[in-house]
Design brief:
Aspartate Aminotransferase, domain 1, Aspartate Aminotransferase, domain 2, 2 domains, 14 helices, binds pyridoxal-5'-phosphate
Length: 404
């Protein structure tokens, strides 16, 4: 049984006050809060078995290695990867994307084309632009419509035998749109292109099945799904990960080193140079356990109720416009009050203890499309409540009164 009051007791931070008011945390698309089940795992690691992994014969090192590799197995099971070594630990989504973009430098030719979408986060735009600069390949963009959806008939026209890679996010962080990645993957594969899906916004809400999707690469960050910052994962199909060269050189990623020639370690270690965020990998596994214990179906259902309720209540405010109105969206509401800068709204909400994000949300092309400087973004998690939505709505009304 999903019981939000019960769940909230797991999150110590939700008890604090901000500016003398109870915290209303609605910036979950930027980072989620951490339950005590995950905090306990972090404290336990540093209190009891902190050690470097994979090379120690001593007990602490073996315990740390076992726990870290257990984290990898939890991620593998969670996304249903075929092999454990198809899961590469990264510092987050940005790192995973750069790892793949860098690897493709040696595989692309001048006449090749890369497709991204108009709905991307900067971290899924800039690495591909850099890749195009290095290789001479061309970047093409799937356009969007006013509802904030990608236009699939335009995507079809962009595809050709020159298309080598397609990059798209599963869910847009700025608007919450759920993209039709099944269709995108199928069509890309039909012309022989590989697909990378940015799952930073999907993993907090749904459980991806990488084999069922038949996706080539899937990346995400732990900190948006109740885990720590500076930790994430890259899933890659074994065949692709074997083809890509290593990203960084260093310890952990080698088989043998001489000054004449170095050979690389097998997967996954080939892509994991240096001492990783050991505690982060262990805590990522704990975060996955925590969310699975609540259940992703229950989470999605509850968050949808919050989304519908908040959408209805906010739209009652005259002069309020919501950007991103697709029927297929998660619990993100990007909006503006007519004639009022989003930053000013965010500042007043903060005075009331309400945390939202304002600005371009690392997705400037979307803001340019709507010809706005940015939006106010409220993003809800499964530990938010209807009374917090009410606090947001009354805060926005207050901001409107004060600023207009
Ligand atoms: C947050 C986010 C990223 C970047 O994640 P980092 O953890 O900062 O690397 C990339 N893409 C999307 C869609 C995001 O929401």
């Amino acid at each position: 049984m999903f019981n939000v009051e019960h769940i909230r007791q797991d999150f110590p931070i939700l008890n604090r006050e901000v500016n003398g008011k109870p915290l209303v945390y609605l910036d979950n698309a930027a980072t989620s809060q951490t339950p005590k089940q995950v905090i306990d795992v972090i404290v336990d690691y540093y209190s009891n078995y902190n050690a470097n992994i994979h090379r120690g014969v001593h007990t602490l090192s073996q315990e740390a290695t076992d726990a870290y590799e257990q984290g990898r197995i939890k991620i593998q099971k969670h996304v249903n990867a075929k092999h454990t070594h198809e899961i590469i630990f990264t510092s987050g989504t940005t790192h995973g994307i750069n790892l793949v973009a860098n690897g493709f430098s040696s595989l692309l030719k001048k006449e090749d084309e890369i497709i991204v979408s108009a709905l991307e986060h900067h971290s899924n735009i800039v690495p591909w632009q850099m890749l195009c600069e290095r290789t001479g390949a061309t970047l093409k963009v799937i356009p969007m419509n006013l509802e904030g959806e990608l236009i699939m008939s335009e995507y079809d026209k962009l595809l050709s035998e020159n298309t080598k890679l397609v990059f798209v996010n599963h869910i847009s962080n700025a608007l919450g749109t759920i993209n039709p990645i099944e269709y995108i993957i199928e069509k890309a594969h039909a012309v022989g292109a590989a697909v990378l899906v940015d799952g930073a916004q999907s993993c907090p809400h749904i459980k991806p099945d990488v084999q069922d999707l038949d996706v080539d690469f899937y990346v995400t960050s732990a900190h948006k799904m109740c885990g720590p910052t500076g930790e994430g994962m890259l899933y890659g199909k074994e065949t692709w990960l074997k083809k890509l060269p290593p990203y960084q050189g260093g310890g952990e990623m080698i088989a043998e080193v001489t000054f004449d020639k170095t050979t690389y370690a097998d997967l996954p270690h080939k892509f994991e140079a240096g001492t990783p965020n050991i505690c982060g990998g262990i805590a990522f596994g704990a975060a996955i356990d925590y969310m699975n214990a609540i259940g992703f179906d229950a989470i999605a259902k509850y968050e949808h109720e919050l989304l519908d309720y908040a959408t209805e209540k906010l739209l009652e405010i005259e002069g309020l416009k919501i950007y991103g109105t697709s029927k297929h969206k998660t619990s993100v509401i990007s909006f503006n009050l007519e004639g009022i800068h989003p930053y000013d709204v965010g500042t007043i909400l903060d005075k009331l203890g309400i945390a939202v994000r304002t600005g371009h949300h690392c997705a400037q092309p979307i803001m340019d499309f709507y010809k706005i400087p940015g939006t106010v973004r409220a993003s809800f998690a499964f530990y938010n409540t209807k009374s917090e939505v009410d606090a947001l709505v009354s805060g926005v009304k207050k901001a409107k009164m004060m600023l207009s």
